[in-house]
Design brief:
By secondary structure, the protein is mostly helical. Helices cover about 55% and strands about 5% of the residues.
């Protein structure tokens, strides 16, 4: 995916950030993923997902606060002005960095590439102060805020970038003056952020916009929108998105295939669910969530012996989490049918009291 003059670095979040497996994939463009401290490798390494076609990584839990002030065009105060304030010229949106702004911006990217996110954040914050109408100063600031765990201010920064990009697209086109054409990526990033910040409806809205602007099937958008639809209880629509995304990446089994399997089971497609979970198990045989999901499907199919054997392969402390409704609903975000069936399995192996 091309970046405008190398200015846009895009981050997509993992879906279930507190879980060690089901992170259908954090995407980084141009950023050394291994140097971002809050991202960890999944099992045997990296899984590609484009904005990652990138590595499958997981995002640790994040806590955030601080808001980025919205900078508006300043007006020159003069006594008894002879013109209307409406006539004051507003600086054009800046799509490409120049002069000192470019120098500071490139220093920020260098710090970012070295994994020094605090220094990078300070530099990008300086860029937004010196050039408040430079789109990618805000988007890069958002990226570093994400890497440092500050989702709320990162959303503010992405929103500022989106607003400027929209304004740029409305401006009269002039020869040699570039306009923002990365709006779908900005919506994709903010939508992914919102999905990880407990804003499921807002996330889905952003991802619908990203899909409309992209105007062609995009595996990363589809994966993220599928997850957002799932979180909003739109399982049939999520299944369609997952299916298309899988068809576009069928040569490489990825963690989001597990999510697709769970959705198919929720919709009653047990055969389709088993087909996917078996392929995921072949790729990630030691992942606890994969073992738990497969055991749950085996139990639902009637193979109680096989289900309990597979379930008990999970180390005790990890396995007992699957008897906790909070973990299943708020950390893994499993669909209701899966939660109900794994609960029965937890009772069967003695991890949960029988309350029937």
């Amino acid at each position: 995916m091309a970046m405008k003059s190398g200015l846009l670095i895009s981050i997509l979040f993992s879906f279930d950030y507190a879980n060690a497996f089901s992170h259908p994939d954090t995407k980084l463009l141009g950023m050394p993923r291994k140097k971002i401290q809050i991202l960890t490798k999944l099992n045997e390494g990296r899984q590609n997902t484009e904005v990652t076609t990138t590595s499958t990584t997981s995002l640790n839990r994040r806590q955030f606060a601080f808001s980025v002030p919205v900078t508006i065009a300043s007006l020159v105060a003069v006594p008894n002005p002879s013109f209307s304030l409406d006539e004051v010229a507003v600086e054009p949106v800046q799509v490409v960095a120049t002069g000192d702004v470019k120098k500071i911006f490139n220093e920020g990217r260098a710090m970012e590439s070295q994994g020094n996110m605090l220094a990078a954040q300070r530099l990008f914050a300086k860029v937004t102060k010196v050039a408040p109408r430079f789109i990618y100063g805000w988007s890069q600031l958002g990226n570093t805020q994400v890497a440092l765990g500050a989702l709320t201010p990162a959303e503010d920064s992405y929103t500022r970038a989106i607003d400027l990009c929209i304004e740029s697209r409305k401006e009269e086109e002039k020869f040699g003056v570039p306009r923002c054409n990365d709006l779908y990526l900005l919506y994709l990033n903010r939508g992914s952020l919102r999905m990880n910040n407990k804003m499921a409806k807002e996330a889905l809205s952003d991802l619908e916009r990203a899909d409309g602007l992209r105007a062609k099937p995009d595996a990363i958008i589809l994966q993220n929108r599928a997850r957002a639809r799932e979180l909003n209880g739109l399982y049939a629509a999520a299944d369609r998105d997952y299916t298309v995304a899988i068809s576009m990446t069928s040569n490489e089994v990825a963690p989001f295939w597990l999510r697709s399997s769970l959705v198919k089971f929720q919709l009653g497609d047990t055969i389709g669910a088993f087909d996917l979970i078996r392929r995921v198990e072949n790729k990630f045989p030691e992942a606890p969530e994969v073992k738990a999901a497969l055991a749950t499907l085996l139990s639902a199919k009637g193979d109680q012996t096989g289900a309990q054997r597979k379930f008990l392969e999970i180390p005790d402390l990890q396995r007992k989490k699957y008897s906790q409704d909070f973990y299943l609903q708020n950390v893994l975000s499993w669909p209701p049918k899966m939660i109900d069936n794994v609960g029965k399995l937890a009772v069967a192996v003695g991890d949960k009291p029988d309350e029937s």
